[in-house]
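2024-03-11 09:14:02 DEBUG pipeline.ingest accepted 1 chain
2024-03-11 09:14:02 DEBUG pipeline.ingest length=568
2024-03-11 09:14:03 DEBUG pipeline.predict start
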Amino acid sequence: MFKKLFLPLFLLFCFSFCQAATEVPVEMLGKNKGEVKIINKDGVDFVEALRLSKILQFQTSWFGRSGQLNLKGGAGFFCVLRDGDPYALIKGEKSSLQAPAFIEDGTLYVPLSFFNSDKIRYYSTYQTELSGGKIVIEKLYNIELLEVKNDDNKADIIFKTKGSVSFNKDNRGKYFAEVFFPKAVVKREDTIRPKNEFIDRIKIRQTDEGTSLTVQLKGRGNNWEVFQRGDYIALSCGEGEPASPLGLYASNTDSSSQSSAESNGAGVLSKPSVLDEGDIALSPKDDITELGDEFFASSSSAGSSSKPSATKVTVVNKLVTAREYEERKNTSAGERKFRILIDPGHGGKDPGAVKRGSSKEKDINLEVAKNLYNLLKKERGFEVKITRDKDVFITLGNRAKMGNDFKADVFVSIHANAAKRASANGFEVYFRSDKASDAEAAETAALENEALQYEGKEGGNVTFADLLLKSLANNENINQSSKLAGHIRNSVSKKSSSLGIKVRQDNAIRQANFYVLRGVHAPAVLVEMGYLSNANDRKRLNTKSVKQRMAESIRDGIISYANAEGWR
């Protein structure tokens, strides 16, 4: 009798002690990333460590015999997880786990809470939690787009905030509204084209300094205003004087925090006490800025059916650099210019590809880039800058930073290719991807990334590692980069016979991990005009007329992209 009871009791004990692994979906930034295994043991959720670490973009090394998993990340992050250890070793220091790690079916499991600990979130900048039967991974954000709504009279863009989020606004012409949220991290970057008569396009972008909102307005939406109430900020636009839509959200806002926000003048720009050399304090009389305009905060109480009254909050003087002042003053009214940064690859001590019987790559790149710059400067509605206009060395990190400081709408890096095979030839255009599209693309990226060897300590305060950590080349920018690459490829293809350089439609657009594109906060491409290692391409790229026609072809591609995206 005892033997008959022993086996069922033993199996029940084993089942209660060690639950079977369950596969759950992973959603990262709203996108499906597959599934990972979870085991609930003694009330603690354990997750398949290797798989989730890869999803969170850590570099991983798994040592099955010792049961050890190593994780690497930016800023020197290094973490060791071991079977049986109740802690993780993070940069040599012990960090307690909710429960010891263990191996099941050859897989290391660690508490899910480990991936949401303060130290891991600091290095990955993501928060990870089990919610609704799936693992949800989001950025550590404090502002998110709640909804875009419209009626017959106006359209509203509503944001929800966490904690204190301020804003400032800028009117770059009649049909562009720009709002910047300093130090804010947005939940999702996005580009939206609402189907209404007020807004053509909404672009939400993360930068190192905060979150940027750019709204391209249609004819009926050229009057706009920004409103803040408690945990909500709204941009409202229409034909008449905009009214705050935030009374609708009053029931979701704590009344005490509301009164505090209003009394503190939420959204008001503080005036610096000290002017740096070369800075200008603009006054409300400067009609080229938003200064002296008024923000409105609704003061209606929750549940009120009457139209919200408006409390006027005056914006104080804003500090801008003298250069910014001149740029604003010289920008024509009613038009926000399309900003293009041209980057001639290599330069100075970095020659790029060097082949006998040819100019150095750095010199070819510079001549074509300067031709392109001069051509684009003549185009209406474009603002153009170039990273170098002479033979000087610029670090890859600072090239990307120049694009971000310029707030470029597109970044175009000009190069000439080289390969071990002399038969390799033709025009190609690349956009950034962590994984190369093929072996040749990986070889090209490796060649261009060799510029890092020349950098030394010349990166100044901005290193390429910093830009990698803050890389914002998200899916939206990658998608737009792909579009830009397509427009440039098509334009160059149309002139391939006069250029004398082949453009293959099936593989002229490629992906690879180019460092110079990695830190750019805008659609970015790297153009390889031809192969200096190929006799025909080399001869053509050393011909002055071909270099001019190449610049014209790239210009046509940029214009085609700008037109397609509604900039002109």
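2024-03-11 09:14:41 DEBUG pipeline.report The radius of gyration is 28 Å.
2024-03-11 09:14:41 DEBUG pipeline.predict end
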